[in-house]
Design brief:
Strand content: 15-25%
Number of strands: 13
Distance between the termini: 52 Å
Shape: globular
Bound molecules: nicotinamide-adenine-dinucleotide, thymidine-5'-diphosphate
CATH topology of the domain at 4-187 and 223-251 and 293-313: Rossmann fold
Oligomer: single chain
Number of helices: 12
CATH architecture of the domain at 4-187 and 223-251 and 293-313: 3-Layer(aba) Sandwich
Strand order of the largest sheet: 3-2-1-4-5-6-11
């Protein structure tokens, strides 16, 4: 069925991959990308689509209610896929205000716009709120997050995402807004901004810089290739039950140190070692731990499998190899996003470790 989809935050990591997927696979869908272009949003990543007949880019803020009114009316939006957020835990620790503004107030403003413009419009409208497994807090050595796990966010980022999930759910229960929520584990793949673990290690490793590992490197994340996440979102949009939430994950738990060591080995193999007999593993540097660092995340994605028939297609070995290939082939992209503001942030976090 044809749709007119408002994608918020479409210039960020997952949004860029999602828009590429939609325009390749849904020829009768129109895509309107609303993005504020913060440090994390990069228009270059969608340059290949700029003249695509089914694609429109609008620079703007999800907190701007008159702009949202205009977009809903002029573009006749019937579907929202809401990615726009401040998304980096470390930034939320040093500057939480933006997270409250965009993630909480911005989501509220978007929900209000959908409620206003979809009133009486019937069943075909959908508001898919993209969220994270981090709302569930931190696991011990065993167990998994299910859709029934109680929320227990522990960073300003995850608390702001939990608030937005609660608002989205409240708009379903109170106003009957056709809301769907997804809670996904850590994504990796092309176009991820190089302040998150995997692209940061690839970028530093390529340039022979230190590879900062927080604490003892034993924190565990459940990694999912971004394309699998995007396909899961389409599946939920098309087949998910209104008012439900769906956990998405890769059943792919790794400690941070395992991930960093694997990336070092892949870089050595593909780009050559740093010097004769000098592996990039020698760049690994244990640094002060993140405040309130969640120890382990792991998703039980059986609802996605049993109800919607979704399973990840890309193994970690395949996905990480594709990711390394992409970063090696797209060093101009990395250069274009690691401009002054990124460098300033980087200095603040890590000091001069080059
Ligand atoms: P990202 O930080 O790479 O991109 C965020 C995008 O949102 C950027 O393009 C930015 O310019 C835009 N944006 C920020 N504030 C805005 C505003 N006020 N108005 C309009 N646009 C704004 O994030 P990402 O990694 O692509 O994550 C996308 C979504 O998925 C987020 O909601 C995040 O919480 C969620 N999520 C991410 C992961 C992950 O591993 N990256 C995992 C699970 C869920
Ligand atoms: P990150 O990519 O920031 O994602 P999240 O915090 O949302 O899981 O970090 C992934 C893990 O890697 C997390 O446990 C923190 C750790 N980490 C490091 O050890 N060093 C780093 O430089 C970064 C950015 C993260």
């Amino acid at each position: 069925m044809a749709k007119t989809v408002l994608v918020t935050g479409g210039c960020g990591f997952i949004g860029v991959n999602f828009i590429h997927l939609l325009l390749a696979e849904k020829p009768d869908w129109q895509v309107i990308n609303l993005d504020k272009l913060t440090y994390a949003g990069n228009l270059h990543s969608l340059a290949d689509l700029s003249s695509h007949p089914n694609y429109t880019f609008i620079k703007g803020d999800i907190c701007d209610s008159p702009l949202l009114d205009q977009i809903f009316i002029e573009q006749q939006i019937d579907t929202v896929v809401h990615f726009a957020a401040e998304s980096h835990v470390d930034r939320s620790i040093t500057g939480p205000a933006e997270f409250i503004q965009t993630n909480v107030f911005g989501t509220f403003t978007l929900l209000e716009a959908a409620k206003k413009h979809w009133s009486g419009q019937g069943e075909h409208c959908r508001f898919l709120h993209v969220s994270t497994d981090e709302v569930f807090g931190s696991l011990g050595q065993t167990g998994f997050f299910t859709e029934e796990t109680a929320y227990d966010p522990r960073s300003p980022y995850s608390a702001s995402k939990a608030s937005s999930d609660h608002l989205a759910r409240a708009y379903f229960h109170t106003y009957g807004l056709p809301v769907l929520i997804t809670n996904c584990s850590n994504n990796y793949g092309p176009y991820q901004f190089p302040e998150k673990l995997i692209p940061l290690v690839l970028n530093n490793g390529l340039h022979g810089k230190e590879l900062p590992v927080y604490g003892d490197g034993g924190n565990v994340r459940d990694w999912l290739y971004v394309q699998d996440h995007c396909e899961a979102i389409v599946r939920v949009l098309e087949q998910g039950r209104i008012g439900q939430s769906y956990n998405i994950g890769g059943h792919n738990e790794k400690t941070n140190l395992q991930v960093v060591e694997l990336l070092c080995d892949l870089l050595d193999a593909q780009a050559g070692p740093l010097a004769a007999n000098k592996s990039r593993r020698s760049l690994i540097t244990f640094v002060k731990d993140r405040l309130g660092h969640d120890r382990r995340y792991a998703i039980d994605a059986s609802k996605m499998a049993n109800e919607l028939g979704w399973l990840p297609k890309v193994t970690f070995a395949q996905g990480i190899a594709k990711t390394v290939d992409w970063y090696l082939a797209n060093q101009a992209w990395i250069a274009s996003v690691t401009d002054g503001s990124y460098q300033h942030y980087y200095q603040k976090m890590y000091g001069d470790r080059s």
